Amino acid sequence: MNVEVEGEKPMSKKTMIGADLLVDTLIDEGVDTIFGYPGGAVLPIYDALYRSEASFQHILSRHEQGSIFAAEGYARVTGKPAVVIATSGPGATNLVTGITDAMMDSLPVVIFTGQVGNKVIGTDAFQEADVMGITTPITKYNYQVKRLEDLPRIVKEAFHIATTGRPGPVVVDIPKDISEEEVTDEYSTEFFLPGYQPNVRPNPLQITKLADALEKAKKPVLLAGAGIVFARATAELKKFVEKHEIPVVTTLQGLGSFPGTHPLSLGMAGMHGTYAANMAIYESDLLMNIGSRFDDRLTGSLEHFAPNAIVAHIDIDPAEIGKNIPTKIPVVSDAKTALEALLDKTIDKPACADWREKVSEYQTDYPLWYERSDELISPQWMLEKIYKETEGKAIVTTDVGQHQMWTAQFYTFDQPNRWVTSGGLGSMGFGFPSAIGAQLGSPDDLVISVVGDGGFQMNLQELSILQERRLPVKVFIVNNEALGMVRQWQERFYDERYSVSLMTINPDFVKLAESYDVRGVRVDSEDEFEDVLKDVLAYDGPVVVDCRVVKLENVYPMVAPGTGNHQMIGVTKE
Ligand SMILES: Cc1ncc(C[n+]2csc(CCOP(=O)(O)OP(=O)(O)O)c2C)c(N)n1
Ligand SMILES: [Mg+2]
Question: What was the pLDDT predicted at 153?
């Protein structure tokens, strides 16, 4: 690792140990960035990194949760696997939320945890935690290395499993004695996983059924999910959609899989989706889902979801098909190969000009709306301004809450791999560290992190990384002095009983940023905001902008829990 030390780097270690083998295997995998935090059980690994001649960049977070969220941001924008190292016990358990998050959102992250020595496993040794037990339900796969000769093969398998099929996190738990053991032989990295053979080619019969259904459809809708981005199938999707002129709605994670500014795009569907997107699904007679898992925030009440549609579902993960929604045309496949197969087929274009007109009228008649404030900043207006000023070209990460939904609604993505948010798990604390990973993964891009005043405080210690690396991330705190999304639900469904959701005490975010040698700015009005925005975007370094927004603003439209998407509330100003 390129560690800067005064004078000669003390290198004298002749024998090769397990930790060196791990580092060599990482080099072989093309790893150049590691997110991590050291501790006793991973000392041999950190020593091997120190001694290595390879130029790894190691990003030292200030909390392991920061490491794994940053790794997710990195994986999301690069499409490459991200690597995390943490020590045994508390190091490993501090990763649990992030691993679960990566699992829910299908992100390829390979996590190396130190473990106590093999001989003391099960004795409640110092900093022992049952990492296998804890991570079994939250990983795509997990390993504990029992013999040194298995280590390089396991590492190879871990990367293979994390990145192929439906991506996901893989944990490799390495007992300290394995990291320290002397390497005496050359160990094979060959592997064969008969039980893991993701099906990437669609069944031709199912493609024919889908083609037939499309020809006959009068009201087709294509639901585009993140699977399209993972499969790098956005060009194929656009071609297919334009060929047949099918209206497209996206999921939250699917934003950017199809250009949001395209005339056939109806925007995001689901709990805070657009009226046009939700009504198009509700009224459709053919719903083609590509790479989305029909989660409950998307579907609303299942009984009212696409009640008249033939459902076709293309997914690399067979377990997703039919899980929530009865599916007439199941296609187990990678999104790209399935779209290629569909593009290769001669399909009569569905006769649905009336339908396109109808859904486009929904768009013009029921656009997203908000009221401007003449005092504080309207959050939606602020996000629209950020969108316009950055010409929609920024990589945007968010935390979880109202600001997340406003960003999804008002920042339009035309490109994939530029939208980084915690969807499945909805983990507060994700937004800021994931921006760090995104910036490292895409150093030449403008990275904007939109966070809530609540969520930012869950991982603000990572400001240290901005300080240390001068990463030019621009953090916009949508400061409503509240756990806004909680407050909104309390306003609507709990008779305004604001139980613990009003954050009357917040730190001075400007001083806080400055204490990390990061520029801090506070903005209180829309008048100031435009100039500040230009100035902040032109600034060549990290900035935290404390934006004082309307405190009681709500996210609309909204599908109330237990209702159908067609029963959305707040579609127009009440
Ligand atoms: C780790 C975690 N704890 C609790 C929640 C529940 N939760 C969802 S949104 C939210 C409020 C977030 O407040 P803030 O970060 O200020 O964002 P805002 O909604 O105000 O934009 C809470 C507490 C969560 N999603 N994640
Ligand atoms: Mg808030």
Answer: 98
